[in-house]
Design brief:
Distance between the termini: 50 Å
Radius of gyration: 21 Å
Strand order of the largest sheet: 3-2-1-4
Largest sheet: 4 strands, parallel
CATH class of one domain: Alpha Beta
Length: 410
């Protein structure tokens, strides 16, 4: 029976879907986390603790485990573990991206430089230490621009500035975010830097793909019907298939393919954010992971396989040819956090579930626990899922279901 090493941070949403896919495939799973599981001594062949912040140390530990319990594939479930997976894959001679390419996909500034060097249409950017005089910088940078923490993800700390005053205010707000305990843990050595990036107008799309031998296979292109103009960039609705003309879809796919080549990525899932305007397709960011949160549940392939099924099959060297996305339209809405506070209650869940086309309503935030809105936060209250004959109908179902929710935050 094949054995897969799944890198599962304790904070990930993705564990259940990957474990379910492995169970369907009949493969053995070794669950790796950065924190020791209480049952690890009773199950030494299926639970292992790895230091995700130290990829080389994690690779050494994985190699020792591999000597006792041979591993056939290593799969990162999110962006935080992509570099660790590449390092382990290299050490164990498994299918993997190069460590350099995985690191490039985690570093927004290096990514921007590699795109520019390869002629990939992407926003220009520069990185500055937090100690810089933001007032002085504001008089020099081209506005409008977007300020981003160098390593954080999920739109956390991403703020558009239209004038010098807005630039200084955004700088101070991001500095406060980076000073938080969890941000320091996530950012590491890049935590003291801010990326200032050219603002690219246009409609935004998300591409889900899978690389095999450096060749990109487009799995799904999502429309983002809600405008993402700032000042914050909270994503809400994804709908697929895209309503773009085939020519424009091809331009987006080509842009992402060129971006993956520029970074040196060659194997596994990629998730890209692309903007389209009258000057063409612009690659905003490219991650060496699949779509975040529970959004992958919108996708079905072949006879009902999930995105996680395809990722695990690819990692094991199994063919995924002929496994096209289903013809029906599907959508997901990431339920936004309207303001920071303590979640008291979300009412109207049954009414939302009763909307035609809604197939699932999942609340991930815990009642009575603090919730944090963007740009300080990076999570959502939950997810609405729809399926319909057309993308328009799938989108309409999500909007109607959301309108039936009442969110009480103290």
């Amino acid at each position: 029976m094949p054995r897969i090493l799944l890198l599962l941070p304790t904070t990930t949403y993705r564990a259940a879907d990957f474990l379910a896919a492995a169970a369907r495939m009949g493969v053995e799973v070794v669950a790796a986390s950065e924190e020791q599981n209480a049952l690890s001594r009773q199950h030494p062949d299926s639970l292992v603790t790895l230091n995700f912040r130290e990829p080389e140390a994690a690779a050494r530990a994985a190699l020792e485990f591999h000597k006792r319990y041979p591993i056939d594939a290593v799969v990162p479930v999110d962006e935080a573990t992509a570099v660790v997976a590449a390092t382990i894959g290299s050490a164990l001679s498994l299918r993997h991206n190069s460590v350099e390419s995985a690191r490039a996909a985690r570093n927004k500034h290096l990514m921007s430089e590699l795109f520019a060097g390869s002629g990939v249409p992407a926003p220009r950017s520069a990185v500055f230490p937090l100690q810089e005089d933001s007032s002085l910088l504001a008089s020099k940078v081209r506005l409008p621009c977007v300020l981003k923490p160098l390593a954080l993800s999920g739109s956390r700390g991403v703020i558009r500035a239209d004038d010098p005053q807005g630039f200084v205010a955004a700088w101070k707000r991001i500095a406060a975010i980076l000073d938080s305990k969890d941000a320091k843990r996530l950012s590491g050595e890049t935590g003291g830097k801010i990326l200032v990036q050219e603002y690219v107008p246009g409609r935004e799309f998300a591409l889900e793909g899978l690389l095999a031998g450096g060749r990109l296979r487009l799995l799904a292109l999502f429309d983002k019907p809600d405008p993402l103009d700032g000042p914050f960039f909270e994503e809400t609705i994804y709908v697929t298939p895209s309503r773009l003309a085939e020519r424009e879809q091809a331009r987006i796919a080509d842009c992402v393919s060129r971006g993956a080549q520029a970074l040196g990525l060659s194997e596994g899932p990629v998730h890209a954010e692309v903007r389209l305007n009258d000057r063409g397709a612009w690659l905003i960011e490219l991650a060496a992971r699949s779509v975040g949160g529970l959004c992958s549940r919108t996708l079905r392939f072949g006879t009902g396989l999930s995105l996680e099924d395809l990722i695990l099959r690819h990692a094991l060297g199994m063919s995924i040819e002929g496994l096209a996305r289903e013809e029906a339209a599907a959508g997901v809405m990431m339920i936004p956090i309207p303001r920071s506070g303590k979640l008291a209650e979300i009412r109207g869940l049954e009414e939302a579930r009763a909307v035609g086309g809604i197939v699932e309503v999942t609340i991930t935030a815990r009642r009575g626990r603090p919730v944090t809105a963007l740009p300080e936060g990076s999570s959502y209250l939950g997810f609405l899922f729809s399926r319909a004959e057309t993308p328009a109908a799938a989108e309409a179902a999500l909007r109607e279901a959301y309108s039936r929710l009442t969110i009480d935050i103290e």
